Amino acid sequence: MGHGKETPRQKMIGMMYLVLTALLALNVSKDILNAFVVVNNGLEVTNKNFKSKNESLYNDFATQMADPGKKIKVQPYFEASEQVKKEAQLVCDSIHELKRRLLIAVDGGDIDEAAGEANDKNADGRFTVEDKILDLMLVNAKDNYDIPTHMFCGTDVTGKGAAAERLKLTLISLKENFLKILESDKLEILNKKLVIENYKTSQFGIRTDDPGETGGDESSKYWETQNFYHLASVAVVTMLSKIENDVRNAEADVVSTLLAQIGALDFKFDKLEARVVAKSNYVISGGKYEADLFVAAFSTTDKPIVVVGSDLDTTTMEFRGDTTQVPVINGVAKYIVPAGGVGPKKYSAVIKVKKPSGEFQPYFIKDIEYMVAQPAAVVSPTKMNVFYIGVPNPVDISVSGFSADKIQASISSGSISKSSSGWIVSQTKSGKVNINVSVKMDDGTTKSMGSSEFRVKTLPNPVAKIADKSEGLIGKGELTAQQGVKAAMDNFDFDLKVTVKSFTVSATIKGFTKEEASSSNIFTPSQKAIIGQIERGQKVYFENIRAAMPDGTVRNLNTIAFKIN
Fold it and tell me: Using CB atoms within 10 A of its CB, is residue 148 exposed (0-12), middle (13-18) or buried (19+)?
């Protein structure tokens, strides 16, 4: 992380520069000076390539910023990269200006007016200074020592107060600014402390420290004079190109580091599961059931640490009192605690998830509430609040918190069995009975949920009717249109079938009482004959009505008395 890896080309150019500098100190021929030209031209190409590669990194940032789904995550790193770009460009511009001023001065310009556009060309006007920067072979005074030394080192043996010192301070400021960018609290960087420490140690590959005592002369002790004192103009330009190369390399390294952080600290999950979190599993009639349905992501390899406790300090986010670490299986913590004591219960939890950096990120959940209630079974007859002998009595049985397949029931008298829609109770004698309810627990044991008491009665008598009437006035035509006698269970919720087995018809015809019997619920021809002879104002009686009940009994029903109108 500290310093970008040099390509073989960079290593070769750096080695050539060192060799040529050593030869130059021996006042070797102009062939050596021309060799500097070759090295510098190579550095210029490398710098151009570096700038192009850096632009591709910035383009990568821009592409990710254009994605609405990534913008928020990318933005702090993008803004930091723009700062790096600006800082690096300012330094490279200042280095370029130093080259420009130097070449103007050595080829006939005035060093004090070197920044002026008037001196951008030679006297013959053939080549601009920009041409010469790109190709030092165009420089006339390649071997000029005096002007570069005066410009960069001045008259002080330490080189202080001249262009070299100002360049050194610029490079130091650049490195400090790079560190400030990386140290920003806005940036999350994987192994941040180690990354920054490595950069500090390597100085981003831009060395600006003084060599100190080397056994040489006084000028070799200082960075300024070691790099720029008594060097030919082409060697100084080459040195500046090398420094620019180091700056571009450092820029690429820092921007690559920033780009690599996007998503580097994201949590890594290897499993997705659908989850339903209900606001409450207990909903009263007329209320609303509310739940969140979502896909949960978790890791089956990096287990989170889950701790629960009863008292979480919201200021320090630490538990007071005892805590329990919940076991985690396949990335999921199962919190199981005995439900002791009736009433509202509350606990808090912290879930610590391991980040890619190895550190744990805590997530706090405060005041999770649940209710412990006394176990209660609800047994509701679906038709009436009593059971009746001889008929199936439907019953609903429920226990809050348990599914129907977990519920078991027994009865103190008679029988109870499951049906497709609930339970059925059968009884043979009147009195009182108890339905006992229990549930099967998850551990296989059975737990009693209580009992409910019910009364057992015989079925009430049905009401005998003709034309849906049992007394009063009736038209002769309406009566003769009927088929026979029916029995109905008035105001009774059970859908029961009652069959009339027999009845008699009697009336006074011309002073004589006539009576005819039927052994079914249908009028016989003889009975119809009596009904046909009845005059308006006379009475007719339907008596001795007997009906077969669903419980197997035969009941004597009410007499039907009509007056013909």
Answer: buried
- What residues does each domain of the chain span? 8-260, 271-371, 377-457, 463-564
Tens digits of residue pLDDT in 77-126: 999 999 999 999 999 999 999 999 998 888 875 444 444 333 444 444 55
CATH 2.60.40.1080 matches 377-457: yes
Alpha-helical (H) ranges within 416-549 are 476-480, 525-533
The runs of H, that is alpha helices, within 156-313 are 163-183, 192-202, 223-228, 233-260
- CA atoms of 437 and 557, how far apart (whole Å): 40
φ/ψ of 74, rounded to 5, equals: -80, -30
Give dist(CA 433, CA 499) in Å, integer.
30
Q: What percentage of residues in the chain have a pLDDT greater than 70?
A: 85
Rounded to whole angstroms, the Cα distance separating 358 from 556 reads 90
Radius of gyration of the chain (CA): 52
Mean pLDDT by 10 residues, the chain (565 residues): 50 56 53 79 87 91 88 91 96 93 79 41 56 76 88 88 94 96 90 91 92 67 89 91 94 92 67 72 61 77 85 84 87 81 81 78 84 71 80 88 87 94 92 93 86 92 95 94 94 88 95 95 96 94 96 94 94
Label residue 341 exposed, middle or buried (CB < 10 Å: 0-12, 13-18, 19+): exposed
Residue 42 CB: number of other CB atoms within 10 A? Answer: 19
How far is 201 from 175, CA to CA, in rounded Å? 11
Q: Which secondary-structure segment (H or E) carries 91?
A: helix 71-106
**H helices of 417-562, where?**
476-480, 525-533
527-552 tens-digit pLDDT? 999 999 999 999 999 999 999 998 88
Amino acid at position 216, single letter? G
Give CA torsion, residues 80, 85, 88, 90, to 10 deg.
-110
